[in-house]
Amino acid sequence: MPYTPETWPIGAALLNFTGTTADGRDRTTAGPEAWKQTLREVRLAGFDHVDLTDSWVRPADLDAQGRRRLLETARSYDLAFSDIAVTRKSVITPDEDKARENMAYTKRTIDAAADLEVPMVCLGLHDPFTEPQKQATWFWLAEGAEDEETPENREKAATRFRELGEYAAERGVSVSLEMYEGTFLGTADSSVQLVTAVDLPNVGLCPDIGNIVRLHREVEDWREMLTKMLPHTNYWQLKNYFRDFDPATGSYASAPAPLALGFINYREAIGMALEAGFDGPMCVEHYGGDGLTVTAMNRDYIRGILAAKLPEE
């Protein structure tokens, strides 16, 4: 049954919640008492879905009992998981031992998705922060690691994502590949080339164009990026930024913004997605400040657009 504006799964990202408890414990292994406060706040903000970001809790590192307890804790607040986001664990990172470790971790995440009744796992090719990124006010203002642009490395990415996609399909899980600068998913053309090379029905794209428009350099037009990627899109992380460019000095500026106020016109973007046939889960993200409150505003904004754009019943 098609989604309505009220039932479309829009998950709260947990980027603003830490993976360490106030007393210094790993939140993943600390158990339900360390998970409840976050999930309670998400529910009180009006969400019915959570985008399970592994920087908060790593479901891959929970055993069967731990996953069951996580699912029960979410259900106790009437929450479902719409996606698991695997962050900064590239399967083609230059350290081959680390790449194999990331492959194994991703497969465990897919196993966890099946256990947690999560339909989607979002993967990327971005590596952990560099030291300059850790020191920057906003990490995207400093130089990060980049994929080595060779045919062999590109084929490695396609082969490994294909392996993960096949693994996920056996478990009834879909995979989405997240757009991110400096990687083979860093432009619309490159992203489409990669997902086409993977060539699996359960593997699509996450056109997180916010990751691109925040960069302090010339970037692709967001409409053109979406036009190319939306036909391949199965999941969407949405965030927005203020963006400015002064041609007199050549300087750029950007800062996080609510969806309705930033550089990208999401009323138009969501309309484009619906016209392209997009029907996957969404995730609302925001960096800085009270991210949960801003993402709740973003959720309501999206539901209003869906009400205006979807056919009347």
Automatic annotation (TrEMBL):
InterPro entries: IolE/XylAMocC-like (IPR050312), Xyl_isomerase-like_sf (IPR036237), Xyl_isomerase-like_TIM-brl (IPR013022). One of its GO terms (molecular function) is isomerase activity. Keywords: Carbohydrate metabolism, Isomerase. The keyword Transmembrane does not apply. It comes from the Bacteria. Residues 40-288 form the Xylose isomerase-like TIM barrel domain. This is Sugar phosphate isomerase/epimerase. It comes from Kocuria aegyptia.
